């Protein structure tokens, strides 16, 4: 883009020189020079804006570590109360249905969404940015990649079968970066996709419409009190004792039988036993 604009500047300069060199009227020459100077200033300002737009946002992070999904260990209290992210260049990593959403999943928290795919499907970078790290986690992500983006976000791509981009590569939104797979802690082929800010996960569905494959807003306003509200949720468990029933546990824990069934995925005929852990919050 920058080279193209500078090429246009040079062509305009040449055209003025050719068109004016043979003119006898000095006023015409002066007028053309003034017009040309204005055009060159305008185009140079576009060049400067273009350079700024493609400058990687590292200031918020302070470094560029090449290991771990979250190497920052930045406390939530240190995260800005609000931040605006430019999502206008978003491209879907893969266009398919969501099979699992962000949030509590059994005793574990699911920090991203799962998107259906076939092993070997091409995965694209969601935004412009740079590949920060590649890794392998046999107990979770399997083969994964983290891309830091110009807008201040980082995205995580998990359960991959292979890499197309390498650590340190500059990538554009939609640029092929990896191949989908079923590695790590996975029950079937899918892409585990996360959006993070300073290491803290944000529900991707707050930013992106995964049915239309477009950003919900070109500029997403992150508000810490809302986007990270899930981090204040305390998960509590009750240990079943002899003679306990769901209604008795509900009364003791200040909840309802319906809520207990929902949190623990218990059917109408489910049997609970002494020593069993029942989640109630």
| Biggest pleated-sheet summary | 10 strands, antiparallel
User: Low-confidence runs (pLDDT<50, min 5 residues)?
Assistant: 1-24, 38-57
Indicate the CATH topology of the largest domain: Glucose Permease (Domain IIA)
- Name of the CATH architecture of the largest domain: Distorted Sandwich
- Backbone shape: globular
Measured between the Cα atoms of the first and last residue, the distance is: 53 Å
| Mean pLDDT score | 83
Radius of gyration over C-alpha positions, nearest whole angstrom = 27 Å
Strand and helix order:
HHEEEEEEEEEEEEEHEEEHEHHE
CATH superfamily of the largest domain: Glucose Permease (Domain IIA)
**Percent of residues in beta strands?**
25-35%
Explain what the structure shows:
This protein has 281 residues and is α+β, with helices and mostly antiparallel strands. The chain folds into 3 domains: 2-53; 76-232, Glucose Permease (Domain IIA), CATH 2.70.70.10; 237-279, LysM domain (Membrane-bound Lytic Murein Transglycosylase D, Chain A). It contains 6 helices and 18 strands. It has helices spanning 2-21, 26-53, 204-207, 224-227, 246-253, 257-264; strands at 82-86, 98-100, 103-105, 108-110, 113-116, 122-124, 129-137, 142-149, 154-163, 170-171, 176-180, 190-197, 200-202, 208-209, 214-215, 219-223, 237-239, 277-279. Strands 2, 5, 6, 7, 8, 9, 10, 11, 12 and 13 form a 10-stranded antiparallel sheet that branches. The chain has a two-stranded antiparallel sheet with strand order 1-16. Strands 3-4 form a two-stranded antiparallel sheet. A hairpin with a 4-residue loop joins strand 8 (142-149) and strand 9 (154-163). Helix 1 (2-21) runs antiparallel to helix 2 (26-53) and helix 5 (246-253) crosses helix 6. The two termini are 53 Å apart.
């Amino acid at each position: 883009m920058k080279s193209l604009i500078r090429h246009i500047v040079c062509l305009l300069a040449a055209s003025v020189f050719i068109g004016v060199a043979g003119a006898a009227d000095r006023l015409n020459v002066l007028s053309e020079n003034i017009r040309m100077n204005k055009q060159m200033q305008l185009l140079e300002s576009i060049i400067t804006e273009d350079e700024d737009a493609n400058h990687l946002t590292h200031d918020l992070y302070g470094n560029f570590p090449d290991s771990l999904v979250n190497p920052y260990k930045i406390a939530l209290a240190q995260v800005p109360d609000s931040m605006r992210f430019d999502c206008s260049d978003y491209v879907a990593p893969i266009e398919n249905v969501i099979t699992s959403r962000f949030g509590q999943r059994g005793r574990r928290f699911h920090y991203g969404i799962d998107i259906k795919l076939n092993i070997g499907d091409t995965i694209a970078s969601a935004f412009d940015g740079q590949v920060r790290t590649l890794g392998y986690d046999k107990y979770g992500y399997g083969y994964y990649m983290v891309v830091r983006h110009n807008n201040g976000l980082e995205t995580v791509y998990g359960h991959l079968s292979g890499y197309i981009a390498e650590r340190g590569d500059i990538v554009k939104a939609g640029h092929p970066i990896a191949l989908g797979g079923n590695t790590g802690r996975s029950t079937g082929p899918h892409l585990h996709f996360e959006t993070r800010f300073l290491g803290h996960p944000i529900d991707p569905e707050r930013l992106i419409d995964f049915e239309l494959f477009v950003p919900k807003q070109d500029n997403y306003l992150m508000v810490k009190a809302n986007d990270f509200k899930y981090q204040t949720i305390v998960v509590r468990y009750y240990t079943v004792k002899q003679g306990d029933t769901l209604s008795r546990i509900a009364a003791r824990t200040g909840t309802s039988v319906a809520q207990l069934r929902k949190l623990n995925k218990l059917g109408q005929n489910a049997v609970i036993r002494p020593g069993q852990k029942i989640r109630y919050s």
